[in-house]
Structure formats: structure tokens, C-alpha cells
Amino acid sequence: xxxxxxxxxxxxxxxxxxxxxxxxxxxxxxxxxxxxxxxxxxxxxxxxxxxxxxxxxxxxxxxxxxxxxxxxxxxxxxxxxxxxxxxxxxxxxxxxxxxxxxxxxxxxxxxxxxxxxxxxxxxxxxxxxxxxxxxxxxxxxxxxxxxxxxxxxxxxxxxxxxxxxxxxxxxxxxxxxxxxxxxxxxxxxxxxxxxxxxxxxxxxxxxxxxxxxxxxxxxxxxxxxxxxxxxxxxxxxxxxxxxxxxxxxxxxxxxxxxxxxxxxxxxxxxxxxxxxxxxxxxxxxxxxxxxxxxxxxxxxxxxxxxxxxxxxxxxxxxxxxxxxxxxxxxxxxxxxxxxxxxxxxxxxxxxxxxxxxxxxxxxxxxxxxxxxxxxxxxxxxxxxxxxxxxxxxxxxxxxxxxxxxxxxxxxxxxxxxxxxxxxxx
Length: 425
Hints:
mainly alpha
């Protein structure tokens, strides 16, 4: 044994193995931190010429370095280091081997994206959009290949802590009639009050209510995050256990439901009712966690029979949110008709939107279309939409093959798609 460690090569191999173990551990820590800080939007905005439309700065087009981007970059660097030999061997294999149908599909799709960007009004905005796309493609790839090494309970705990934080902050904003600022600024909370231009207010029973934002860019996005986070936690909650973790999970569902109600996000609230109904039926059959779901259903019912219920019963086709969505959908369809093959270019929807709107449309109509399918088709053409739908289909097919957990994964992906059909996620 002593001779082995006197060997320089053995020492180097052992040192490399120990270093790899530390790198893998650090990767996991970075990933857990990413989940924890996922709802925050602390970042540095940059304002190049392409981020302005008619002299107006557009947040959606502003290249922004977020704290979460730094975490993803660090994960990428450490992943590259830990997979160095794996990547080199596989790169050689890819060069020598024939292309599979999947590889050909990816290459063709990337070529279409690049052509669309080249033909777009703002290639710079397109390049930035492509960089963001590649960033999240890597993140998805990383999660898919490492999810079995990561501890799901820790991931859910990070979601729970973040959800509790966002919920308490949202409730405080609701009672404060505006942002809190102070230390919350460093978590990405924007300054706002009921008089802020373009702020999301709602009228209930003749009284004006300020919808809370948390650290998000809009109450609907906050509501979407709460629904997905709580759905993940609800799928794993257990009953008749006294562990602190389960107490945290129950607190998350309770305070998260209250925060969701005061966001006044119709689609997210209705979706949460559907999710609870799904779990109620399933848990009722196996007599597990029933009282938790009954409590949450009761909480939702109390919320809907109060003045908050008027948010659902008082919907009119003339409501600003409906008129705005209709206008954006019409503009999106017109873009698709005029650019059916390549679209207007990745990240170029807003750049082209002003050309399709009526001359006197309000400035805050400069938003992405509130439907992810139309947005994909507008920016990447029919080819991009087909690829997107195909990807979702393959994902669902893979989920249904995992019989033990397919119900939870199915309902969560279903929730993402439903939310994405009514807002610009």
C-alpha cells in the first residue's frame, strides 16, 4: 500500500479522484442554491441600442446578467471539468459515427433558428435570445443527466423555503400597498405603488386592490411559480409524521395558497383548484394526507366566497386584460402569416410588434403574446412550432413510461403548459 502511494501516477490519480469528488459536491450545492434563488431577479441590466423601441427602454430586450445566470455558469464550468474525459471521448465518437434522426433534427432546427435570426429586424436581439436558449438547454440537459444523483427532498426543501419567502413578502406588499424595498431590493424586488405606471391593480366591489409582485416581474408570474412549487411539494407530502420537513411543507402549502389568492391570478387559482381536486381524488382512495387537502380546499373556498370571488364572476370581454390579450394574439397571427417558415426571428417578437399594432395602442401593449405556442410560432415559424410540440410529445411519452411517478410529473408539466397558454412565461 505504501509503495502504491509512493508512485507519482497513483498519487496523481488519487488526487484527481478526490478533486473530482469535491467538484461534484460543489456542483450539487450550486444547483440547490439555484433552486433556492430561482424566484429572485437580482441582476445587472444593460441597454444596447437594440433594447430600445421607438426610444423606449424595453426590459424584455435588455441583456441582463442575473445572479442565477452566474450560478448556472459556475455549474457549467464545474460540469465541464468533471466531464472532461467523457466529453472528449464522446466528441470523437460523434465525429466518427453517423448522425441519428434526433441529431439531424437538432442540427436542422439550429440552422432554421440561425437563418431566422439573420433575416430578422434585430439580429443582435436574436443572438442574445439564442444565448439564453442555449443556457437553459444546458440546464435542462444537466438536470436530466444528474437528477438521480441529486436529492429530491433537498430540491423540494429549497422550493419550500423560496415559496415561504415569496408568500410572506407578497402578503406584506399587499398590506403595505406597495413594495417594501430595503433588503428586499437585493432579492430583486422592484419599487412600485398603486400609482406606478402600468402596475397591476384590480377592482373588487368598487375598491382598488394592488396585486403583489413578490420579487417577480408580474403577479401572474408570481402566481405561476407558487402553483408549480406547491404542486411539486404536494406530490411528495406525507401524513402522520412529526418531522420538521413535513411541517415546513404544510406551512408552504398553507401560506402559499393565501399568497396565491391575493395575486388575483385567475388562471393560476383555477389551476390550483384542479390540482387539489386531482390529489383529493387520489388521496381519498388511499386514505393518505386527506386532511391536508381538505384544509387547502376549505381555504380556497373561503377565499372565493369573499370579495375575491368577484374576480371570477365579474369577468367581461371589455376588461383590459382580455382586450390586451386579444390584440396581442391578432398581432401574433399576422406575424405567422407573413413569416410562416422562419418566423420574425428569435427574441424579435417585440421588435416587430409595433408594426402590427394600431397607431394609438398603449405603450404597455409592448409585451410578448400571452401564449407560448403562438410566441414560438411567431419567432421561429411553423418549423419551430412543430419541433416544440414534438419535444413536448416525447416528454409526455417518457413520463408515462415511468409508472411510479408519472401522475405527479404529468400534472406538473400539464400545469406549465396551461399557464403558458394564458401568459408570457
